[in-house]
């Protein structure tokens, strides 16, 4: 969540997650992309600060970010062995992509999802890291719902 959002919400006396989400969404369209760079590793048990959860979710300086333009296979509760394998490949590739240098975090549409995660499109030099994962067969473009990664 943007620091400005929290300050605005506090000034207005908003305390619930839903109210903070509304404030964040209201500011999202006016917010310029944030530039970031950090050293990422896979998330370990315990507090998460800067790490990669899976192919489309990571933590940056204590903020949980869901990559908004893609969906990747699940790693925590995969529906089949193929999904688990592809999910791990996507997760490791996201670590590589995030560690390759500075990137931008862009709000396109909603600023947060129903779980309170920041929704961001991650780009470097104008190219979506999600699109790179999709081109490599490790993700699908987000279409409003999850697809099955298991063969029928």
From TrEMBL:
Residues 1-30 form the signal peptide. The keyword Signal applies. It comes from the Bacteria. It comes from Novosphingobium subterraneum. Pfam families: SNase (PF00565). Keywords: Signal. PROSITE patterns: TNASE_3 (PS50830). Gene3D superfamilies: 2.40.50.90. This is Nuclease. Residues 48-139 form the TNase-like domain.
């Amino acid at each position: 969540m943007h620091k400005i959002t929290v300050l605005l919400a506090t000034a207005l006396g908003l305390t619930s997650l839903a109210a903070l989400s509304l404030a964040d969404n209201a500011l999202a369209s006016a917010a310029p992309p944030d530039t970031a760079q950090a050293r990422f590793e896979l998330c370990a048990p315990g507090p998460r600060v800067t790490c990669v959860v899976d192919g489309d979710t990571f933590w940056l300086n204590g903020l949980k970010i869901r990559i908004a333009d893609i969906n990747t296979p699940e790693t925590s509760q995969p529906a089949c062995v193929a999904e688990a394998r592809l999910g791990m490949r996507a997760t490791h590739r996201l670590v590589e992509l995030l560690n390759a240098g500075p990137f931008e975090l862009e709000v396109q549409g909603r600023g947060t999802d129903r779980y309170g995660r920041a929704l961001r499109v991650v780009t470097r030099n104008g190219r979506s890291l999600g699109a790179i994962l999709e081109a490599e067969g490790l993700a699908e473009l987000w279409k409003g719902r999850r697809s099955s990664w298991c063969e029928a």
